[in-house]
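[User] Could I get a sequence and structure tokens?

[Assistant]
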Amino acid sequence: MKHMYVTVTGTQYHYGTDFLEKGMLLQLEKDPDNQYDTEAIKVTFPGLGTIGHVANSVKTRIGESMSAGRLYDRIGDKAEAKVLLVMPMGVLCEVQQNEEA
């Protein structure tokens, strides 16, 4: 199965990125009631709640990462992503493949 990468953005509106480290698992959850984007995917961390969203614009994605719109129909309602890089422009993560996929 091909690797799928995403960029987490909007962390500055929540808890920042100082606590994020390579290898941490984050939760991806579809957010269809989002008032700004019907294909929004929020990113959560246990005990904190929402820490950002999957980038959905070429201006906010890092490298070859997928937009939320491209990822939306490839995951169920929830998925996991592993932190690869924490950068000033966003957090690069790899979507963890479900065994059933």
The mean pLDDT is 91. DSSP finds one helix and six strands in the chain. Residues 28 and 79 are 5 Å apart (CA to CA). Strands lie at 5-9, 25-30, 41-45, 49-54, 78-87, 90-95.
